[in-house]
Amino acid sequence: MSDTPDSVVRTYIERHRAAFLDDLAAWLRIPSVSALPEHRDDVRRSAEWLAAKLARTGFPVAEIWPTAGAPAVFAEWPSGDPDAPTVLVYGHHDVQPAAREDGWHSDPFEPEIRDGRMYARGAADDKGQVFFHTLGLRAHLAATGRTAPAVNLKLLVEGEEESGSPHFRALVEERADRLAADAVVVSDTGMWSESTPTVCTGMRGVADCEITFRGPDQDIHSGSFGGAVPNPATVAARVVAALHDADERVAVPGFYDGVTPLTDDERELFAELPFDEEAWLRTARSHGTLGEAGYSTLERVWARPTAEVNGIGGGYQGPGGKTIVPASAMVKLSFRLVDGQDPEKIERAVTDWVAGQVPAGIRHEIVFGAPTRPCLTPLDHPALQSVVRSMSRAFDGRTIRFTREGGSGPAADLRDVLGAPVLFLGISVPSDGWHSPDEKVELELLLKGAETTAHLWGDMAETMR
């Protein structure tokens, strides 16, 4: 094999593989669980470890940024080329809670390598995927002979993603001048499978609410008063029943206003994926599909907005009967949003719709949580094509297909505040078990992630000038 840049990259990564994995294991031993107060110091220690490692990697700037909650890490390495584009990489260093008794076959914070996989909490979500950027960057420098990246490279590694990123947008707004970029690369995502490399092009947003319905001032006798006063549990049930029409479309007026429709090309690309609906149903522990008419299962969970009932309750819940009209009832709803939808407009539309469902004699209150905005990058965006080309090089010329994420994350905050397109680069696969016992990362895919980034910075430097 000739000594091409691709071969230099692959050789460098292989030669430094053992040291890279040792360093990753050291980071994974830090139980940076942001959701548990007793691990607050561990989250801080994780940030300090990463900042120190980035400085040793060569970043001339590596800082710990405090927030009202857990700290983030920021690093910057200027290219030195006056016309080089600026790229910001996003990830997170906090992890989900984990304990051996949850069903792990090894200590979740003592990494083990078995059968080509590293098992540990955070191995895939998200420390492993953040950390492959350090090896990829060093391979990029080795292959090009550069002393600095081909792009102005910045990293922002959050410490509260697993707790809902409550302070992330405020941090981005406060530090927008330091974070300014021409493109954002999010490495908190994954691929379709080990044999089907893919690039995610978007994530849905979310708005959620809790609605409380109040009727009588206390539970009252259903024989004496039932049928003559409004029942808040009945109202809650009717609101839930009215949420969708016969075609499973959300019945809230204005809900679909502004939705970016799927193109024929996108639908064809989704259809090309080797999707096994029966296997998907087994993963979902479900026994049949149901959703908006006219769309496939993948289209429903990736590219269409939805409404779900997350909880409903009211009245007597104990054993036996209790013949009452309950004083109150409640419903919890969530709405997954797609590109073109504004969470604030959705909240107003839902508020108005609920008010129209409530009869006289019922008082109601609706409280929304903090929303997350959707984001989407067009398939023909030049920066996205850089990611696709670089991943194809790492995967020996294989075709890179496209997916979206049905879930939600803070990527849209970066797009909205910084005004930069958001790209997704991840190598995790569904079997990695994010948030589950025995979370793992496939080592060969982890190194493919490093190889992709080694090619990416030069490609983006050329593409985005």
From TrEMBL:
It holds the Pfam family Peptidase_M20. Keywords: Hydrolase, Metal-binding, Protease. It comes from the Bacteria. Gene3D superfamilies: 3.30.70.360, Zn peptidases. InterPro entries: Cyt/Met_Dipeptidase, Peptidase_M20, Peptidase_M20_dimer. Residues 202-356 form the Peptidase M20 dimerisation domain. The keyword Metal-binding applies. One of its GO terms (biological process) is proteolysis. The keyword Hydrolase applies. One of its GO terms (molecular function) is metal ion binding. This is Dipeptidase.
